[in-house]
Amino acid sequence: MANATQYLEENYPSSNRTSITNLDLSNKNFVGDLTISGFVNLQKLNYSFNNFNGEITLKNYQNLEDIDSSYINTYGSHNYDYMTKLKRLKLSNNLISSLILDGSKNLAYLECNSNSLTVLDLTNSENYVEVNCSNNPTLSEIKFPDSFDNVLFDCRDTSLTQVKFPNSSVFDSTATPTTNNHLSLKIGLSVGIISIFLLGLVTLLCYKYRNRRQGTSVLQIPSSGDGNRNQVSQNKEQEAQELKMSKRKI
Questions:
Q1: What is the pLDDT of residues 133-185, one digit of tens each?
Q2: Whole-number pLDDT of residue 7
Q3: pLDDT tens digits, residue range 91-110?
Q4: Is the pLDDT of residue 186 over 80?
Q5: Residue 109's beta-bridge partner residues?
Q6: Span 201-225, mean pLDDT?
Q7: In three state form, how does the secondary structure of the chain look?
Q8: Which of 10, 83, 205, 227 is at a distance of 20 to 30 A from 68, taking alpha carbons?
Q9: How distant, in Å, are the alpha carbons of 92, 99, 155, 163 from that of 147?
Q10: 33-59, pLDDT tens digit by residue?
Q11: Is the pLDDT of residue 237 over 80?
Q12: Record: fold of 74-203
């Protein structure tokens, strides 16, 4: 078992930390607390697949755009309110009970599946592309932003019985044949309709092109055997004409 603080001190001297934009601490068998400091220009941070069972401290990281803290055995409340540039956040397979995202207005990809969330507030951002909050058995409420169109959304294996999207009707999971209130929703039917239309158009064009090729005339070139037979027939006709002429002279 390794200590993350000691690893950072040995491999990342304080004088060099300001130049680092990508820090990968994944799969290091770290245990205990995690305190990351001095990486003021950090944009991407990955400390997944460890066993942190203490406090995780990230200070003054307003430039962070991508965080992967999945599979680290963390729990309790996680606050990302101050990370205004954050676009991608992975928190899957932990024991997180609360998630604060108020200041993360640019967040587009959120993976918080397989945790212990009870309420999920997504009103922080209108830029979501994908949200996965599945396998949170105690999750019973989700707050959506005003704009949530064309978002790939997964909330299977939760306690949700109804999901009301902005500017749309209520989705009642009890009316579906799924068990345990499983929900798997893909929002943005317009994208699917457009895709089907384009596929049909391409298929139609291919069909017309194939029929056009099959309908073109084919030039038949006579074989050498046909030419010989035609020559023999012409010779016989010529002999018959010569015979008639000779009879007339007689």
A1: 999 999 999 999 988 888 999 999 999 987 877 765 445 444 444 444 444 45
A2: 94
A3: 999 999 999 999 899 999 99
A4: no
A5: 88, 130
A6: 64
A7: CEEHHHHHHHHCCHHHHHHCCEEECCCCCEECCEEECCCCCCCEEECCCCECCCCEEECCCCCCCEEECCCCCCEEEEECCCCCCCCEEECCCCEEEEEECCCCCCCCEEECCCCCCCEEECCCCCCCCEEECCCECCCCEEECCCCCCCCEEECCCECCCEEECCCCCEEEHHHCCCCCCCCEEECCHHHHHHHHHHHHHHHHHHHHHHHHHHHCCCCCCCCHHHHHHHHHHHHHHHHHHHHHHHHHHC
A8: 10
A9: 24, 20, 18, 15
A10: 899 999 999 999 999 999 987 788 887
A11: no
A12: 3.80.10
In this structure, what token pair is assigned to residue 188?
């943005």
Give the count of beta carbons closer than 10 Å to the beta carbon of residue 168.
12
Q: Are strands 130-132 and 162-164 parallel, antiparallel or unpaired?
A: unpaired
Which single residue is written with the structure tokens 């027939």?
233
Domain ranges of the chain: 1-67, 74-203
Q: Residue 157: which region, alpha, beta or left (left: phi > 0; alpha: psi -120 to 50)?
A: left
87 Cβ neighbours under 8 A, 6+ residues apart: 65, 66, 106, 107, 108, 109, 127
The predicted structure's pLDDT at residue 217:
43
CB atoms within 10 A of CB 24: 12
Pairing relation of β-strands 184-186 and 152-154?
antiparallel
